[in-house]
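Honest question from a wet-lab person: if I give you the sequences of every part of a complex, can you actually get the arrangement of the whole thing, not just the pieces? Trying it with mine:
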Amino acid sequence: MKLDSVTLAILGNKLAAVSEEMCLTLQRTGRTLYVKETADFACALAGLDGRFFAYPRSIGVSGFVGLECLPAIEAVGPLEPGDVILTNDPYRSEGLSTHLPDLHMIEPYFHEGRIVAYGWCFVHCSDVGGRVPSSISPVNTEIFQEGLRIPPVKLMKRGEMVPEVRLFLDANSRTPDANMGDIRAMLAALSAGRRRLEQTIAQHGAETVAAAATDLVTYAAEKARAVLRRVPEGRYSFSDYLDDDAATHLPVRIALAATFSDGTVHLDFTGTDPQVATAMNIPSRGRPHAWLTLRVLALVNTLDPTTPLNAGLLDPVRITAPEGSLVNPQEPAATGVRHAAAIRVNDVLNGAFGKALPEVMPAAASGTVIPVVMAEPDGRGGRRVQVVEPMIGGTGARFGHDGVDGRDSGISNLANNPVETVEAELGVEILTYALRPDSGGAGRWRGGCGMELTFRVLTDDTNVLGRGMERLVFRPWGANGGKPGATAELTVNRGRPDERRLGKIDVLTVNAGDTVTFLTPGAGGWGDPATRDPEAVRRDVENGFVTPRGALDDYGVVIANGEIDPDATRRQRATIVASNADTAQGPERTRWDSVFSAPEMDRLNRALVGMPGAIRQRRRREILDMVLAPLPEHFPRVEASEEAVTLARRKLGEAIAQL
Amino acid sequence: MTIMQKGGARIGIDVGGTFTDFVLSDPRDDSLAYYKEPSTPDDPSRALIEGLRSLLDKTGLAAGDVATIMHGTTIGLNAIIQRRGATIALIVTRGYRDILEIARSRMPSSFDFHASKEAPLVPRYRIVEIDARLSADGRTTLEPDAAELDRVASELRALKVDAAALVLINGYTDPAVETALAARLSEKTDGLSISSAAAIWPEIREYERTLVACLNAYIQPLMQHYFTGLKHGLERDGVTAPILITASNGGSLSLSSAAERPVETILSGPASGVMAAARLAAEAGVTSIITFDMGGTSSDIAVAHAGEAELATRTDIGGLPLVLPVVDVSAIGAGGGSVVWVDDHDVLHVGPRSAGAMPGPVSYGRGGTEPAVTDCYLALGYIDPAGFLGGRMQLDRDAAETALADIGARIGLGGADAAARTAEGALAVTTAGMATELYKTLAARGLDPATFALVPFGGAGPTHANLLAEEVGIGRVVIPPAAGTFCALGGAAADLRRDFVRSLRRPLDEKSAALLQEIFTELAAEGSTWLDREGGNTTGRRIERGVDMRYAGQAYELRVALPEHTVSVEAIAEAFHREHERIYGFRDTQTAVELGTARLAMVGETTKLARQRIAGGSGSPVPRGVRALFRKGGWLEAAVFGREALGAGDVISGPAIIEQDDTTTILLPGWCARVDIAGNLHLERTAT
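Yes, you can. This is the full assembly:
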């Protein structure tokens, strides 16, 4: 590093603050809900290599610190002061943008005629056209359905907006005014960054600031390596499934082998399913992309919170993401809901890292974000559409600590809606918004409880949407002997004669008087439940996180009249069995693996990924449909006979052999 | 004329962690007297009573000469932060037992998977559900029958709690429902004190409202006990003057109001300081100020215009959001006790850890081994080791220098002046950190710091203010007299003040505008009734009206002040457009405007404090000595002045040091200081 300790500390602070001030400017001047309420935006400063050297810590989307601006910068050719690049195309920006509603902008910052840094920002805008309003639908099959693709172009030339670009933008959005409002807020943020960087250069000199930009990245890389050096060397494998790809009932596999060696980590996603014909693909371009490395950032930041946030954090990370797979799709794969797959990628990294660092990593979090949306007739022929609650679960237990009940920061960390504001705006009565007892995976430390949302609909012909429902089949797994959390459930008119238990829904139509109950999954437990302090179990029962029945069945703790019965507990605890590698992911996964074993799936996916795009998806569907044919309809939620399993396994083996 | 005929003496008292500060406004000669008594944390009222006795002796006044006592306390705040409040229960609509566990469902950090959520004020087993509920339009849709009331009452009795809070979903639509229910339950539980959320704060948003009620119940037993003890103690000394308690909104309440709603007083300490700064600056002709309160563990800023501090309606109390209006104070970083340290990669850091009062900075000689910001001041010659706290505490400069030199050795700062160079580096890091936080705080409100004056107070505020002003490009610093005893002064001057709200949530049209006026009339009547009961010597009353508004479809609301005659739809809309434009830079006349929460503050104005006048000076005062001051890598000779010896009109050029009992002011080269008639020091940049 070139700078002295004091100067580096000062500039580290100031440059990070520049990016945060850009965010505050963007948030203050932005127009739309995404900016104001959910803070789905970010700003940063990039060096001449297009990588971020300063990134905000406390505002905006935290995970995009690993994005790279250089491909977009190179795509537009020479830049002049006042030029601003705009792009939203995952393929042509090479993964800077990862779905079309994210508008990314880059402004070169000049000092004495030379570029010294780039200001960057992005906003999730309201709509960029495409098949559905708001542009995102899980069942889009190609990026062409997802809206206007903006390759890297100059939106601004020497401080003036290019009229032709604006015409294209306005003509291709359902909300051109709101978009332009957000674009203006982004330009304001980029100017704020430019002014503050100029001021910093005036105070400290251009050379010092340039040195800080590289030193800060080096410093972060050193810190990241120091953290990764604490991980025992070795290769750690883990796989997990999404229940389905939103269009078929076929599960989607994400597999990872993480190799830690001398302060570096190699993430190898070989064995992950081919890209899907829906919008869950993560356009990483095979790089250590933000969406594939969130858990690495979190690991470094958790173990050393003083690490500055910048591209250096990813210097020790190498990636193998097979081209044509879910985690590195080929054009024109749709990518609109890539965050749905990213949640599971996060889980898989967590699982692999947990094998190396069992006392650091938690068990699986609930791993689902469901914006429960109601669309009720507004009496004028249209529908009033609003989010009832964004439903999440809890966090996984870890060594020494129970998981957090009913909160999960994993990927979005969104705030919920006050029930009273929902009831003031929609014809709905929210009967229960609560934690879900016994849903947290049992363990020496208990997984966080999932949640319950029950509401009574007050208007006929109301639509309820539950996109993002996951973990109805494959459970949030336990760790180190801990049990998995409960699966998600959806019930209409629970406890009434006309009760209906439903699986995953896209759109559900209900009438006045009907009640709808969403139960979100619980998080995984950590450690053998039979070793949990009986007093902790008693407290959980007293507080209602665990029922007396749950205490008995899951923990072997016998509680009578609020007191522990020590003798009965001792006897009961002898019957409690800790989970192992085969059972920690739940019985559904055990059943699934009895047919689709990890080595076979690795072989299958290796073979499939090598095939041309269109054939790849069709072949996979054909093979899985054929293998599943002898198994019961709701497999793996229900048990299959041994013969059926044997037959299915043989069919899979044969299919792979033929590929 | 007797002193009581002149209105009597007003006394402001602020109980801090180390000292209990007193300010007495004496109407005989319009003077202010200051006094400090070591605090008695086990029973804060002891220091208060003893200190008051000494203060009266010192000023030659009798107990009967006291007209009003204004008192601020942090007992409630500390109890919340340390979770040492009362054992309380929460009664809540069935289906909402987890209202505190779920909160707004966010984690404090999305990047630290070891982060945890805040400990709830009420554990789940002490939360009792009840079959009672309203609809969004104010109808009672679920009413508990006698059996249900008995069941809830018997559960409450079994829990053996000191107090309880009550919240019903949509209770804000008709506070009378909750009030009646609370009374019935209290009757059935031997008079258990039950804080009704809707009665205290009828604003939409059930979680935040629940917290208001829970916080109130949580600190109420403690505060009532303290207030009773204090009142009796003072009465034994013959002090029968009304006691007013300062509030978080910068105003004050009667003792009985504060005992009923202690939640309104939680943040009164910092609020009082800001109010004092705002008032003094306004009197000195300085309109827009940023207050800078630097204490032991942290530094806080707030913004005030024309004597009025900006209020916030969402603050954080030990991890819990508070929606009552409070003076908007933001933490910007290090305090005097913040620790200077070096990480494994040899990069220098300051804070966020604080050495606190124990062991404190190395120079305190209480076993601290890590240097703190105060040690840096010593090593740089900013403060006199023999003059700390008016000489009551000797500091060890050598120890500070040794510890700093050790740090310096690790980051390549050895040789001559290693300690001073390290200290200067650490202060540069500290100041840059404060400056960036200050920029961000102002950027979020669309304000430019360069258009403000900085008004420092607190033990280290005046010491650090010039450094901070220089870093952020502020050209003026105003240092009030007795900057260390500031919160007591703010209390002594506080008006009586209480805020009232009502949620409206409807589009702005002729009908809702008329309804708004009706609500203001009701709230004003409520406010008048309250003020009548408060007693005290108010000289006039004032009403402040406002309403939260938004463009239809927006997710956020903006607080807009409505002057008295802003009644028409057009005028109300225009007030909103204008505010929206000021804060967010645009107006939208195409979209409908919606009314959210109506707000009204009832203010009982109190006698203005004496405006202190100091004697004229010679213009160029004679220093009482010189001290070497380290600046930009070398030692400068700085003249040292005693603050008390300065007269109005005196001018001092930097570098200089101005000392007073409770703090030291550093004047940098390129700046000069002018003393005004009220004793304020005005620091101004002379060179660029």
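Two things worth pointing out. Chain A has a mean pLDDT of 93. Residues 596-658 of chain A form one domain.
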